[in-house]
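Spend some time on the protein that follows and explain the fold to me:
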Amino acid sequence: MRLSRSASWFLLAFGVWSWIIWITFVKNLWADGSGLAFDDAGDPTAYFWVHLTLAITSFLLGTGVGLLGLRGVRALRRESR
């Protein structure tokens, strides 16, 4: 399969965006002081585990998409030489 230049760059940008967004989200989740992520004893709640699972899954999928974009960009650069 061959990706266009714009599709390759879009996928790569999406992967970078995913790293920025989801790492920031997990940092904010970890520092949550509202009582949603941690109970009064400081133990993680179901809210914490569900959102951590969502963040990790999205981070991994974003990484995979970004790697596809990177491979597409590299292939296009090899072709243009």
